[in-house]
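Reopening: structure tokens for the fe (ii) ion complex, inputs below.
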Amino acid sequence: MSAETQQRGKDPKDSIIRMDRLCNLSREKSYDHYELFDWPETVDEKSFLMSPQLLSVAETSFVDELTHEQMVKLSHYEQYNYSSLNTHGERELIIDVIDRMHTPKYEIFTEYMHHLVEEENAHLWFFAQFCKRYGVLYQPKKIVLPSSFPDDVNDFLVFARLMIFEEIVVYFNKVMSTDPCLPKIVRDINRTHFVDESRHIAFGRDIVGVLYHCINFSSHGDEKEMRLNISNYIKAYINGMLRLFYPLHAYTDAGIPDPYEFRSKLMKSPQRHGFHQKIVSKQVAFFLKRDILMEESLNTGETIGVL
Ligand SMILES: [Fe+2]
Ligand SMILES: [Fe+2]
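Re-run output (same inputs, fresh job):
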């Protein structure tokens, strides 16, 4: 990264210091994921498995319309959906990270990328274990996005997607890590993930800023158009991520009558917009501050958080 970064006026020394600090923290906090948790034989079918305030029905009239038993069952399958998203989402994202390790552009980030990949490997294992031991590991769900960007833009988008994904999942981790109504294994998994992801997000915020700075806009045609395309992509990815938290397969498995209609009503519910804003407000502010998200893109088409 150093030569290219210096050419475009950004001093890499700050990133080097931050990566060193993150590497040290990862070494200090390392653990054996195979031995870390006490896995109970079963999880109580009568207990919530996901915090009620995180369910896709939270803050809507469905909270009063569903019985307690239906809410508990929904919490089980939304937890399996959430844990499956973590498994497949991180697996797909780290493939792109591994692809870039030990290439000149990523010289100052590669050491930390090894820690990130190692930690994500642990996360994939324990989220998948949780699903397979107690419920179901759902198959991956795709977010459909435009894919034809120049290489340097793709490099930026890889780490932007990773950061967006991680900032959304840690919101859920943070709440579940201390929720006394959840089984201990759920709190433990979410606390472990929250601690690791806090470092990944610090890395993400650094590398995303650097890689955007490294895009050679003058070689990609109309600069304003390319910046707008990137901004629209970021907006579409955030909304695509939020849609994954309205899982038809989980509603079906939880026995919700007419799951299509249920999902459609929830996604259109204005009460859900406030919840989405809470989840994404920090990352939206990050992208806006760096002019990566542009007002023109925010003011046209779909709005962030309104599905
Ligand atoms: Fe993770
Ligand atoms: Fe991560």
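The pocket of fe (ii) ion (ligand 2) is lined by residues 120, 166, 197, 200 (CB under 6 Å). Residues 19 and 203 are 7 Å apart (CA to CA). Marking as resolved unless the reporter disagrees.
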